Recover the amino acids of this structure.
């Protein structure tokens, strides 16, 4: 995997769920080569608690585990989250679970044992999916790979990294409010977000848009305007 793609993965949080400690340690150590933020859990119950607290963008999970298996864990996640990428580790003996998992919109399956080639394939699939252009509004497209806003025949608008991530967050949470806490957690990682800094950020971003698509919800946050 080339350096540009590796850089894209660095700031993405990932959760590894595996009940066999030795296997989990090896997987987690491998993941730390790609990701700065790696969380681990030994079963579905612990995984769901970590998921709720840290909201990883990728989940790599075994299927058969004690307390709460991978299928039950994924069901809980998919009740309200269809954006997080879920990669399942499976064995030939797990075929009975595959129909359930396919219906839960699993993004990728990796046949055990996990190796670097299989992991690279899954991560490249994630990157290709996550970097596809998205349509924010009619004729307004956000090119995630080039970090550009495209509108009809007008010249492309170059965005800063945080601006791109904010618009992407609004798109992913379309129909819901992106709260101030969520914005700080997702975009202001390195320092505290002040109300003045956020207002300045929104004002500068709106000035770059061909028309306003950012709707303020007083005392709560922002949504993508219809």
């Amino acid at each position: 995997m080339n350096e540009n793609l590796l850089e894209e993965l660095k700031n993405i949080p990932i959760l590894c769920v595996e009940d066999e400690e030795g296997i989990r340690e090896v997987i987690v150590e491998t993941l730390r080569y790609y990701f700065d933020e790696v969380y681990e859990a030994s079963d579905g119950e612990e995984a769901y608690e970590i998921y709720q607290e840290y909201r990883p963008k990728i989940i790599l999970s075994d299927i058969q585990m004690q307390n709460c298996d991978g299928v039950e864990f994924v069901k809980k996640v998919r009740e309200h989250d269809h954006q997080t990428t879920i990669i399942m580790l499976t064995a030939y003996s797990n075929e009975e679970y595959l129909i359930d998992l396919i219906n839960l919109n699993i993004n990728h399956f990796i046949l055990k044992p996990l190796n670097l080639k299989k992991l690279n394939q899954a991560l490249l699939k994630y990157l290709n999916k996550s970097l596809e252009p998205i349509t924010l509004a009619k004729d307004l497209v956000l090119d995630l790979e080039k970090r550009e806003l495209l509108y009809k025949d007008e010249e492309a608008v170059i965005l800063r990294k945080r601006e791109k991530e904010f618009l992407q967050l609004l798109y992913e949470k379309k129909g819901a409010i992106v709260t101030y806490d969520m914005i700080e957690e997702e975009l202001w990682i390195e320092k505290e977000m002040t109300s003045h800094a956020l207002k300045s950020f929104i004002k500068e971003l709106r000035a770059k848009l061909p028309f306003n698509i950012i709707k303020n919800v007083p005392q709560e946050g922002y949504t993508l305007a219809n």
Observations:
- The mean pLDDT is 88.
